[in-house]
Amino acid sequence: MGLLTIIKKQKLKDKECRCLILGLDNSGKSTVVDWVLSFYTNRPRREITPTVGFQIHTVTFENHNVQLWDIGGQSTLRPYWDNYFEKTDVLVWVMDVAVASRLEESVQELRTILQNRDRLGYNCRIIVLLNKKDLVADLDLVLDKLEKDLAVVLKLENVPIETRTTNALNGDGLETLMELIVRGCAGV
């Protein structure tokens, strides 16, 4: 039995879950975290400013302590993302679907992360949030192209991947996010 297996078993026993929230700058990562904190801890919503570095928040859900690691998405910080991969149970990738010019960049960054699967861990669940859907005039057209691009990127063996459209300002599409994260931690 390897050290990582022992650590994973201990985390399951302690019901701890580590979730990275990643994506390009201004994709809505901190707004997603703010909505989760507001919804699950009854904390008032806050004014969001760009995350420089990272912020860690813990939310209790279904007897699990979920650590949400909100990591800045500026291009100068992206080379350091892989420093946070170790012991990650769930990766939430947030994409801003309202800015068409940045969609390919976001898909490429996700592709780069997934090519480094040995660092992220092959058992890490991946959730892709297509955020800011309320700002897109022809959402179906954008989603159709994006789904094709993501289908190529996300073809990984034995890796459960969830994709959903969201509006982090009002929580639309985020209602079951914590359930998905906890299921990912439990390996379900």
TrEMBL record:
<dbReference type="InterPro" id="IPR005225">
    <property type="entry name" value="Small_GTP-bd"/>
</dbReference>
<dbReference type="Pfam" id="PF00025">
    <property type="entry name" value="Arf"/>
</dbReference>
<feature type="binding site">
    <location>
        <begin position="131"/>
        <end position="134"/>
    </location>
    <ligand>
        <name>GTP</name>
    </ligand>
</feature>
<dbReference type="GO" id="GO:0046872">
    <property type="term" value="F:metal ion binding"/>
</dbReference>
<keyword id="KW-0342">GTP-binding</keyword>
<dbReference type="InterPro" id="IPR006689">
    <property type="entry name" value="Small_GTPase_ARF/SAR"/>
</dbReference>
<feature type="binding site">
    <location>
        <begin position="70"/>
        <end position="74"/>
    </location>
    <ligand>
        <name>GTP</name>
    </ligand>
</feature>
<feature type="binding site">
    <location>
        <position position="73"/>
    </location>
    <ligand>
        <name>GTP</name>
    </ligand>
</feature>
<dbReference type="GO" id="GO:0005525">
    <property type="term" value="F:GTP binding"/>
</dbReference>
<dbReference type="InterPro" id="IPR001019">
    <property type="entry name" value="Gprotein_alpha_su"/>
</dbReference>
<dbReference type="GO" id="GO:0031683">
    <property type="term" value="F:G-protein beta/gamma-subunit complex binding"/>
</dbReference>
<dbReference type="GO" id="GO:0007186">
    <property type="term" value="P:G protein-coupled receptor signaling pathway"/>
</dbReference>
<keyword id="KW-0547">Nucleotide-binding</keyword>
<keyword id="KW-0479">Metal-binding</keyword>
<feature type="binding site">
    <location>
        <begin position="23"/>
        <end position="30"/>
    </location>
    <ligand>
        <name>GTP</name>
    </ligand>
</feature>
<feature type="binding site">
    <location>
        <position position="30"/>
    </location>
    <ligand>
        <name>Mg(2+)</name>
    </ligand>
</feature>
<protein>
    <submittedName>
        <fullName>LAME_0F17568g1_1</fullName>
    </submittedName>
</protein>
<dbReference type="GO" id="GO:0003924">
    <property type="term" value="F:GTPase activity"/>
</dbReference>
<dbReference type="InterPro" id="IPR044612">
    <property type="entry name" value="ARL2/3"/>
</dbReference>
<keyword id="KW-0807">Transducer</keyword>
<keyword id="KW-0460">Magnesium</keyword>
<feature type="binding site">
    <location>
        <position position="51"/>
    </location>
    <ligand>
        <name>Mg(2+)</name>
    </ligand>
</feature>
<dbReference type="InterPro" id="IPR027417">
    <property type="entry name" value="P-loop_NTPase"/>
</dbReference>
